[in-house]
Amino acid sequence: MAEEPQADCLFCKIVVGDVPATIVHETDTTLAFRDINPQAPTHVLVIPKEHHPDAAALAAAAPQLAADVLRAAGEVAEQENIAPPGGATVGYRIVFNTGAGAGQTVWHAHAHVLGGRGLNWPPG
Ligand code: 5GP
Ligand code: ZN
């Protein structure tokens, strides 16, 4: 079920413009902006404009919106020139940290789009 904007949610504040962000991509339903603490040359966060607490909750409540986020992530990668084809060194990773034990710190669903450097697998 769709949730209302949360007054105490950082990413809801970015959606309405109360907190500034470097926006790189926007659709009717999604917003993408640069991470404030980048872990790679390209590190963009893609969020649904609607508040959902994490990726699993988003996919369960609003599967089309989850698909919109994935599509936007792919478009961001194209825009950032990190999408294949382009040789063995080109590629990107989409990460949804889900739960505090996995590093989630903001409780508004978001995809990290990471690229522009070699990405080891499995991650640390
Ligand atoms: P998580 O740890 O929840 O998977 O990801 C949250 C991300 O949000 C982190 O990578 C963190 O650097 C980023 N972040 C935290 N505060 C801000 C902010 O005010 N602006 C932007 N652009 N990113 C933020
Ligand atoms: Zn929110």
TrEMBL record:
Signal peptide positions on this chain: none
Residue ranges constituting the HIT domain according to the UniProt record: 10-124
Gene3D superfamilies associated with the record: HIT-like
PROSITE patterns: HIT_2 (PS51084)
Gene Ontology MF terms in the entry: catalytic activity
Active site positions: H110
InterPro entries linked to this entry: Histidine_triad_HIT, HIT-like, HIT-like_sf
Motif (Histidine triad motif): 108-112
Pfam families, sorted: HIT
PANTHER family on file: HISTIDINE TRIAD HIT PROTEIN (PTHR23089)
Name assigned to this protein: Histidine triad (HIT) family protein
Origin species: Streptomyces radiopugnans
